Amino acid sequence: MTPPAGTTMAQALNAALRDALDGDERVLVFGEDVGPLGGVFRVTDGLTAKFGEDRCFDTPLAESGIVGFAVGMAMGGFRPVVEMQFDAFAYPAFEQIASHVAKMRNRTRGRVALPIVIRIPYAGGIGGVEHHCDSSEGYYAHTPGLKVVTPATVADAYSLLREAIDDPDPVIFLEPKKLYWSKADVALPARTEPFGRAAIRRPGADATVVAYGPTVPVALEAAEAAADEGWDLEVLDLRTIVPFDDGTVVASVRRTGRCVVLSEAAGFAGVGAEIAARVQERCFHSLLAPVLRVTGFDIPYPPPMLEHHHLPGVDRILDALDRLQRDDEPDTRHLLAGGAA
Amino acid sequence: MTERHRDGRPRPLLPSERPIRFLTDGGTPARGPHPYPEPDPDLLLRAYRRMVVGRRFDAQATALTKQGRLAVYPSSRGQEACQVGAVLALDDGDWLFPTYRESVALVTRGIPPVEVLSLLRGDAHCGYDPHRHHVAPQCTPLATQTVHAAGLAYAERRKGSGRVALAFVGDGATSEGDFHEALNFAAVFHAPVVFLVQNNRYAISVPLERQTAAPALAYKGIGYGVRSEQVDGNDAVAVLAVLGAAVAHARSGGGPFLVEAHTYRMEPHTNADDATRYRADAETERWRRRDPIARLEAYLRGLGRLGDEEAAAIAAEAEEVAARLRAGMNADPDLAPLDLFAHVYREPTPQLAEQRALLRSELQAELHAEEVPV
Ligand SMILES: Cc1ncc(C[n+]2csc(CCOP(=O)(O)OP(=O)(O)O)c2C)c(N)n1
């Protein structure tokens, strides 16, 4: 079925779950409040009514239990799609995720695979109180055995979730909360690119902005603003953090010669650091300036009235561009080791 | 350290078969005998006053969400007997470990209402000084505070302070692993902690039946060796009686105590929740007839301890509290963005100092932009 024009990301995710439940009896949806309530963000709205209590159901309130139960059910032949209600509330399940979900295939030398999707509404920008806004992608991306996916567009939300459910490996599916109500005219079902392929959301010649999930619209907005200052920015949407698309990123930076990595998470030891390092390793001779990261501060997520100071916005991206010195000869020698200049 | 009857038989850990109640739904004395002594009428009158003030506070906070003054508010309307009862059963030096729903308890503890609401207004994660009030920050991740309460109570026991801790926890959160670990630690270390489960029937949309197959949440103490009891949570007399006994048990070296209070959340989970999706009005209506404040009021009037004049004075006091709260919340909070870096570590790391400088220059640029119109 095709939702009407102006589909929200939440509706697209809902449609993906509905189509997956429809298409494969082994698919199950469970978690906290996903049943009659339809999830606190209504992503599972109507699924229990349509498919019954056996296919979409509420569990006791226990994240470790939910994920551990999913491990057992996946071993028993089902394909669980579970919901963690908010990013920080997945931490009780972290033991199950890191020790078991991520490692089962490896521990059993390929004999036991876990096709589980763990959906997590994540990141900030919606005025939520503490523990409702964490950017936790770094923990998952650092854990071998997990795929880490975060959609930025309505079509990708549908397509990536369908692919996640079909995937033979466990997928951490991070849903940017602030994009749940973003809209696009998309006819569903829609299929976009497969996992491991970044998308160029805006082609440009002067610098590449690498973004994912909640920061993609911010990067696009910054590109508009930067155009007024004479910058032609290329905006890349990773779509999947793991697997990582070195090819598209490298090709883009070799073309533009400059790179800014954008993320909401604290910058230190984060996904942005990994990307910057990879770009440096692969594009060193094409770079006209150091790779810069524009990230949230290295602080616990602030109270809602102050979150706008923490979240990287257009201005902070424009400031970074200043440091990339587009015009004239790049004077970046002072940044080289030893400071010989 | 098993508790024993005088004849040496171990005392059962089992709660009473039915929730303890002193009052009927209408507020007349319920048939006894009661296994716990009835609280002093002065204490009941104090509780009544705090409950009336608490409800007015709660209604005002709910109204403020409609004006956008609070990011979110989880109401405790209907749960006043538990929230006030818990605080009045403790001494001021005893510790409270609240969740996001315990605003009324914190106001009862004497924390200024505006400070209580900082978390939910969104200007600070914790608006009050925990050490000053002996109240931990309101906890949002479920059940995690129960383990803290066990640890603090054990610390107090080690110091020989005679202080106890009380942890609030919801029915839903009793499913979390931390709740079970807390009971076990508290029992093994004989920590003077009271776990107060406010069983308000729902965890957001999920009803109790989906949370547990146990006959009562109070039974969860048994396997850990924790004395447990269940009480009618809308009967303030019973709540005070049982919590009084639980606190005395913990304080006198008896170890932890679990109280399940059967109550009901009259409002949606928070102002953002749609309760019509998961429960029927008729059910809410049934609980309205067991309103904790109305029951206590009827009882106190029956005892001759509350007259029209005093009731009016208490209502006036509640109005005053609400007016002060409105004024406090309508004033914009003092926000200090640079404080974002102040309390990550005692001394900021060099990286944080750099980031602070960056934010500072951004703020200065903003100021400039305001002052110098272009
Ligand atoms: C670890 C964790 N998981 C999920 C949530 C999201 N959440 C907030 S309140 C709530 C329901 C809690 O119900 P209950 O424990 O019965 O307490 P009540 O809100 O009814 O007082 C849920 C699921 C959370 N805060 N923490």
From TrEMBL, chain A:
Q: Name one GO molecular function term.
A: pyruvate dehydrogenase (acetyl-transferring) activity
Does the record carry Hydrolase as a key word? no
Task: Report the enzyme's class at the first EC level.
Answer: oxidoreductase
InterPro entries xrefs:
THDP-binding, Transketo_C/PFOR_II, Transketolase-like_Pyr-bd, Transketolase_C
User: SUPFAM superfamilies of this UniProt entry?
Assistant: Thiamin diphosphate-binding fold (THDP-binding), TK C-terminal domain-like
- List, for all copies, the residue spans of the domain called Transketolase-like pyrimidine-binding: 7-182
**Gene3D superfamilies this protein is in?**
3.40.50.920, 3.40.50.970
Kindly state which keywords UniProt assigns to this record, in alphabetical order: Oxidoreductase, Pyruvate, Thiamine pyrophosphate
Q: Report the EC number(s), separated by commas if there are several.
A: 1.2.4.1
Q: Which CDD domains match?
A: TPP_PYR_E1-PDHc-beta_like (cd07036)
> Which Pfam families does this UniProt record tie to the protein?
Transket_pyr, Transketolase_C
What cofactors does the UniProt entry give for this protein? thiamine diphosphate
The name under which this protein is listed is Pyruvate dehydrogenase E1 component beta subunit
What is the organism field in this record? Sphaerisporangium krabiense
UniProtKB/TrEMBL annotation, chain B:
Keyword Oxidoreductase appears in the UniProt entry = yes
Provide this UniProt record's keywords sorted from A to Z.
Answer: Oxidoreductase, Pyruvate, Thiamine pyrophosphate
InterPro entries linked to this entry: Alpha-ketoacid_DH_E1_comp, DH_E1, PdhA/BkdA, THDP-binding
Q: What class of enzyme is it?
A: oxidoreductase
EC annotation from Swiss-Prot or TrEMBL: 1.2.4.1
Q: What cofactors does this protein use?
A: thiamine diphosphate
Instruction: Give any GO molecular function from the UniProt entry.
Output: pyruvate dehydrogenase (acetyl-transferring) activity
Gene Ontology BP, a term? branched-chain amino acid catabolic process
Q: Which SUPFAM superfamilies match?
A: Thiamin diphosphate-binding fold (THDP-binding)
- Compositionally biased spans, kind Basic and acidic residues: 1-10
Highest taxon above the source species: Bacteria
Renumbered residue ranges of the record's region Disordered: 1-41
Q: Where is the Dehydrogenase E1 component domain?
A: 48-320
Task: Give the NCBIfam families listed for this entry.
Answer: PDH_E1_alph_x (TIGR03181)
Name of the protein:
Pyruvate dehydrogenase E1 component alpha subunit
Q: Which organism is it from?
A: Sphaerisporangium krabiense
Taxonomic lineage is: Bacteria, Bacillati, Actinomycetota, Actinomycetes, Streptosporangiales
